[in-house]
Amino acid sequence: MTEPLLSVRDLTVQFPTRRGLLTAVDRLSFDLAPGEVLGLVGESGAGKSMTGSAIIGLLEPPGRIAGGEIRLKGERIDNLPAEAMRRIRGRRIGMIFQDPLTSLNPLIRIGDQLVETIVTHTDRTPWEAKLHAASLLEAVGIPAARARIDSYPHEFSGGMRQRVVIALALAADPELIIADEPTTALDVSVQAQIIAVLKDLCRDKGTAVILITHDMGVIAETADRVAVLYAGRLAEIGPVADVISRPHHPYTRGLMGSIPSLDGGRDRLEQIPGSMPRLSHIPPGCAFNPRCLQAFARCVAERPPAYRADASEAACFLLDPAMSPAEAAR
Amino acid sequence: MLAFLIRRIAEALVVMVVVAFFAFSMFRFMGDPVANMMGPDATIADREAMTKRLGLDQPFPVQFAAFLGNVAEGDFGVSFRVGRPVIDLVKERLPATLELALISGLFALVGGIGLGVYTALRRDGLLSRAIMAISLIGVSLPTFLIGIALIYLFAVELRWLPSFGRGETVRIGGWTTGFLTGSGLASLVLPSITLGLFQMTLIMRLVRSEMLEVLRTDYIRFARARGLTTRAIHFGHALKNTLVPVITVTGLQLGSIVAFAIITETVFQWPGVGSLFISSVQAVDVPVMATYLLFVAGFFVFVNLVVDLLYFAVDPRLRSATTGGH
Ligand SMILES: Nc1ncnc2c1ncn2[C@@H]1O[C@H](COP(=O)(O)OP(=O)(O)OP(=O)(O)O)[C@@H](O)[C@H]1O
Ligand code: SF4
Ligand SMILES: [Mg+2]
């Protein structure tokens, strides 16, 4: 890999609560190459949104980065002063949220929201910014973009609004876009279009994407690599095709098993029994051990590090090359 | 837009007729107007003539219709107490009350919004907490106590400001104003603060909680994610959205300033319609009381109408909802 665009090392996000310190993201590490699309999957509460918010520096207090580091082209960005981080947001890292209906300020014309973003981050005059805004709206596929630039958000459908949101996130040509379930709130019929718009634009501009979603189908079609989170920890990361067809981590295997196969056959293999532990009740050792059919003594005692497995990495002792076959068989 | 305006005005008229009905009912149920006007030594014949002249022998609906007709023509009857047309009495007193209401309304509005925004943005600041604590006192203390405290401190002890009356006034046409003289302006300070303090506190608390709410919304989060400056996010985005829901309550608060003015005018011996009302109550001067009721209601209805139009100007969603899109 060339120098990574984004490098996350041992990222830890914690929340002090009345019942103690909760760790929502636990020593998470991964790299992202320029222009690469990384899927981020995991059950609800796995820490996907927290990871995204931590990277762009928008964790809601009292949540905070309690450890590790985040580098953007080698420069640390997790401990920057607020103003320096603000300049990175929008300009170098953009973010798209789940709900386009509430992401746009209802009282401000979409053209003005675009112009404001462009003028904040570039040297363009407001007039140039407005031209650029129109071309952005065209690029995301808003029909009659020039005429609609003075419209208010409520005058657009949900799908059109999410296109506007994408235009806004890309307005200053960031190097990375974090898209947090960008289509979950939308009508199924427009979900594929929105993903296509996002994917095509980012490919054309060479923008890297962290795509957070529950939809493995979308990941399979869109992402280059995929990271699977479980209870705030990385379970497995690797090229999409590998993770889908040859998952190494027992959790990933279960996850892939519970996806209907593409030909619509009924080969639903195993559904993972049980559910992900709450943050306050994460078991010692491997967080997956209560649900893992292959768990053994070591799984309760130690937390597994990430082991290399083919082109992927997975945090499971079964992949430890030093492990004796006898131990695994128990 | 026009249809909306016409509908609102029609509604306002209905409200005014209902209020007029209550005002009119006062004539029936509060004392005997004939006895009030003629005194104890009038003859029976005189009384009957007077009853006829006032139309009091007519059936109730006819009397009410006649009352409405008179009111529409600006004839509010003759004061029992002073024997002059009520409209003249009110005209003399109106400038004092309206100027007081205007200044205390501005004080409440500017102070309320300013402090509300400040305490929302500096949520955990020491000064914010102090302001919030003091504001609790502002809401819970009765107006007259605040007035008396202010008089004691600034008029009696410090002797900085006058404690009663309007000071020197200047006459412009039919209007007497206190805005053009030093003593007129100085006289406005204490009563305006007294009258506006309660409203200011309410507006401040409302703006604060609304702003905190807005700062938690997705579009503010998205504005942050786009790297807009804090200034643009707070004042370009959040403030605007905060003020929309605040308009209604604020409008009503400002409307109620005129009603609350009764107490302040009494404490500061302010020669406005509020103190006119108080002296009328003491004398059971029903025409003046009825007119005052109409006046306060009219002011409320007017403020409401302005509020509706403001909404229209501020919220694009409303605009296209009532005009059926662009
Ligand atoms: N303010 C908070 N205080 C304590 N815990 C929190 C707080 N906010 C979030 N969490 C916890 O952090 C964990 C991670 O949340 P996160 O939003 O990242 O999940 P997610 O993977 O994005 O899930 P989803 O698919 O539902 O969006 C969750 O278990 C959540 O309960
Ligand atoms: S480390 Fe142990 S418990 Fe965890 S997934 Fe691997 S086998 Fe299962
Ligand atoms: Mg989430």
TrEMBL record, chain A:
It is found in: Cell inner membrane. Its main location: membrane. The keyword Nucleotidyltransferase does not apply. CDD domains: ABC_NikE_OppD_transporters. Gene3D superfamilies: P-loop containing nucleotide triphosphate hydrolases. It is a peripheral membrane protein. GO terms for molecular function: ATP binding; ATP hydrolysis activity. Keywords: ATP-binding, Cell membrane, Membrane, Nucleotide-binding, Transport. Residues 6-256 form the ABC transporter domain. One of its GO terms (biological process) is peptide transport. GO terms for cellular component: plasma membrane. The keyword Signal does not apply. Belongs to the ABC transporter superfamily. This is Methionine ABC transporter ATP-binding protein.
From TrEMBL, chain B:
InterPro entries: BPD_transp_1_N (IPR045621), MetI-like (IPR000515), MetI-like_sf (IPR035906). It holds the Pfam family BPD_transp_1. Keywords: Cell membrane, Membrane, Transmembrane, Transmembrane helix, Transport. One of its GO terms (biological process) is transmembrane transport. It is found in: Cell membrane. The keyword Transmembrane applies. Signal peptide: none annotated. The chain crosses the membrane at residues 12-30, 100-121, 133-155, 175-198, 243-270, 290-314. It is a multi-pass membrane protein. Residues 94-311 form the ABC transmembrane type-1 domain. CDD domains: TM_PBP2 (cd06261). It comes from the Bacteria. GO terms for cellular component: plasma membrane. Belongs to the binding-protein-dependent transport system permease family. PANTHER family: ABC TRANSPORTER PERMEASE PROTEIN (PTHR43163:SF2), DIPEPTIDE TRANSPORT SYSTEM PERMEASE PROTEIN DPPB-RELATED (PTHR43163). This is ABC transporter permease. It comes from Prosthecodimorpha hirschii.
